[in-house]
Specification:
Glutamine Phosphoribosylpyrophosphate, subunit 1, domain 1; single chain; alpha+beta; seven-stranded antiparallel sheet; 5 helices; 236 residues; six-stranded antiparallel sheet
Length: 236
């Protein structure tokens, strides 16, 4: 299992997802409060953000525990964007622990994280190839392949989750994806919360703090958000 979080709104540093909140991803790596499977997320971490100087997102990921990277706190303070995605990883048994298996995965404008597990046999024919043998990389490749055909972010994520879930009834398929201007997330087997702010929207596997306003997204739902504000939640 894993924990992930995203921000869409006014520019802010990645540290606001990772280090600054009392229950940010750094804390969730060793003391998650709502994680249903696994207790420590020490098999890697990553973050992605959008810089005006680049056409594609910037990504930083490691296969070590997030607390073992002495350079991350300073980097997360200067990695500033209106669209952020970060994750810590608890690898599914049998899956490789390597950077290519660590979220966020990326292709063109898109970033994607997976919280859960799925039989690789359920997703391998949904994509032509993947950068890693792990289940999450194959899910990401399947979503990216649909995005390249012209489907929008929500349609691509929803189609992959529904197809994979039908083939593997025990799958856990919480995906979190963004393109710099919009965000899509699924709830399929684990928790997801969102909290509106005056200048944007937080989405996370579990609340990053104890402030009021966090709302649980119902099981088997798709959450959609755009830079213009507003959240849409619909059943999968």
């Amino acid at each position: 299992m894993c924990r992930h979080a995203a921000w869409l709104g006014a520019p802010r540093p990645a540290a606001t997802l990772i280090h600054e909140p009392e229950h940010g991803l750094h804390t969730q790596s060793y003391a998650p409060r709502r994680q249903r499977h696994g207790t420590v997320n020490a098999d890697g971490f990553g973050m992605g953000w959008y810089d005006p100087a680049r056409a594609e997102p910037v990504r930083y990921r490691r296969s070590i525990p997030i607390w073992a990277d002495a350079n991350l706190p300073a980097l997360a303070q200067v990695a500033r964007s209106g669209c952020l995605l970060a994750a810590v990883r608890c690898a599914t048994t049998g899956m490789p622990v390597e950077e290519s298996a660590t979220a966020p995965f990326t292709d063109g404008l898109w970033l994607l994280s997976h919280n859960g597990r799925v039989a690789r046999e359920a997703v391998r024919d949904l994509a032509d190839d993947a950068e890693s043998a792990c289940d999450s990389a194959w899910l990401a490749a399947a979503v990216f392949q649909r995005l390249r055909t012209g489907l929008d972010l929500g349609q691509s994520v929803a189609e992959v989750v529904v197809k994979a879930g039908a083939r593997d009834p025990g799958a856990r398929l919480n995906l979190l994806a963004c393109d710099g201007a919009s965000l899509a997330a699924t709830v399929w087997g684990d928790t997801l919360f969102h909290r509106p702010a005056e200048d944007g929207l937080l989405v996370a596997s579990e609340p990053l703090d104890d402030l009021p306003g966090w709302q649980a997204v119902p099981e088997r739902s798709l959450l959609l958000a755009g830079s213009s504000g507003g959240v849409c939640v619909q059943p999968l």
